[in-house]
Structures are given as C-alpha cells and as structure tokens.
Design goal:
This protein is α+β, with helices and mostly antiparallel strands and 152 residues long. 15% of the residues lie in helices and 36% in strands. It folds into two domains: 61 residues, 2-Layer Sandwich (Signal recognition particle alu RNA binding heterodimer, srp9/1); 67 residues, Signal recognition particle alu RNA binding heterodimer, srp9/1, CATH 3.30.720.110. α1 packs antiparallel against α2.
C-alpha cells in the first residue's frame, strides 16, 4: 500500500493567481475549478473563486489550493511572518512548504522563480546540513524551505 500527501493551501481570494504562479515555477498540469463550476450562479460574489485547484508535475511536485468562501483580503490563511534572528528561525506561521532536490542546479531554478517579489528569510547557500538550503516567503504569504537532499 502506498499513500501520497499533498499540501493544501487555503487562500483569501488569490488561489487562482497562486496556483498559476506555482504552475509556472514547477510545470506539470494545473486544474482549477470555481464555485460557479459546481453550481453557484454566475454573478454571485465569489462564484469565480477557486473551490478546487491542483498543480501536479511529473517531477513529483503537488500542491492544492482553495479560496475560503467570503474572504477576499489578506495573505494565506494561517499566515504570519517568518524571519531569522540570532541564527534562529522565528515564526508564527502554521506551516512551511518544503521542497528538496538532489541537485543544487535544479533547486536554484525553483528558488529563483519563487523569489520573485518574495521576502528572503535565509538566502540559498551551503549549510552545515546541506549543499544548499534557503527559506523565503513568496508573494502569496507561503513560506518555502528548500534544500539539496544529497551530497552534490
């Protein structure tokens, strides 16, 4: 028996933009269904918002997204801030999304794309535990922890 976990992010109105952005970064397929697609009458506020969204790439990347009904402002639900202080990560966020790659070159490509309009918490660089580690909070309020998963 096998199982698969997929991070499911809850947004406050910008799930479509986030999913399209992640699709541009990681590739693969993107599926977006709105409340209107599932029967909410057109013209009703929120009918164009995402009730089910998925980005699934051949490289194993998967993330789901959803717009919380009735909310249209603010960062990702459960958001907060993450920063480095005195060599310690300080956060009040409920979660980070972690990605790993065997190759620093591949990881650098994802990092560079995610870093556009992001707040870099920890620059991507060699660390005591990895040939490459970095952390950033993207334009949608999602904090990403990225690392090389083998000696490269």
């Amino acid at each position: 028996m096998t199982i698969q976990t997929t991070t499911h992010l809850n947004f406050r109105g910008d799930a479509r933009a986030a999913l399209e952005f992640y699709h541009s970064v990681f590739g693969g397929q993107v599926e977006i269904n709105t409340y209107g697609d599932f029967g909410m009458p057109a013209g009703v506020p929120g009918s164009d918002k995402v009730v089910f969204g998925l980005v699934a790439a051949e490289n194993g990347f998967r993330v789901m997204g959803y717009d919380i009904p009735g909310t249209t402002e603010g960062a990702i639900a459960g958001g907060g801030t993450t920063r480095r202080e005195n060599n310690t990560t300080i956060t009040d966020q409920a979660l980070f999304v972690s990605i790993g790659s065997d190759s620093l070159d591949e990881l650098q490509k994802y990092w560079d794309a995610l870093a556009v309009d992001a707040v870099v918490v920890e620059p991507l660089a060699a660390s005591a535990w990895s040939a490459g580690f970095g952390m950033l909070t993207d334009r949608f309020g999602v904090t990403w922890s990225v690392s090389v998963t083998s000696a490269s």
